[in-house]
Amino acid sequence: MSRNEDASGAQGVNRVKSELVAETARKFGEVRLQLAGTSMFPCLMPGDIVTVRRCGVEDFRPGEIAKYIRDGRLFAHRVVGVEDGRLITRGDTLRKDDAPVHAEEIVGKVVSVLRGGTTFTPRIAPSRGERALANMARHSNLALRILYFLLKTRPTPLEQTALCQN
Question: Fewest C-beta in 10 Å: which of 58, 94, 107, 126?
């Protein structure tokens, strides 16, 4: 099997997984899945488990995080606007807006994040610190890898409490 055949097979599997996630959200109204990308760093990180609740374009406000499917891939990006019944989105570490997201591409809204045993609701507006980290990650892949390593290995508040009690 050639490298191209292997890559196209993986793309086919990802497309099927993405469609399954979208169909689950449509049927049951909510789906939980693990993230892999870094476009929303540090708000969302690889390994986070997000809960996505099905909703329409009219239910989004700027700052909320939309999960949508495009070209057989799933994306979770922040809504920066709503125009003509479509979402305008952009990953926190990305420089440009995505192509407008049509209603049929929307899987839902990220309503909670599970990271290291702690569940939280993503902020509508990233904090100053989060914006600074995203800006560093936007300009340097090395900075992104270092920051991710540091944040990933830092104890969660729950773990920190347990460490302090022992």
Answer: 58
For residue 119, give both structure tokens: 């569940």
pLDDT digits (tens, 9 = 90+) for 129-139: 888 888 888 88
Q: List the domain boundaries for the chain.
A: 3-165
CA-closest candidate to residue 101, choices 74, 138, 135, 131: 74
Whole-model pTM: value is 0.80
How far apart are the C-alpha atoms of 60 and 25, rounded to whole Å?
A: 16
Query: Using one digit for the tens of pLDDT, what is the confidence trace for 59-71?
Result: 999 999 999 999 9
Beta strand 86-90 with 49-53: parallel, antiparallel or unpaired? Answer: unpaired
C-alpha 103/C-alpha 100 separation (Å) is 10
* The CATH number, out of the four listed (3.40.640.10, 3.40.190.290, 3.40.190.10, 2.10.109.10), of the domain defined by the range 3-165: 2.10.109.10
Residue 102: strand, helix, or coil: coil
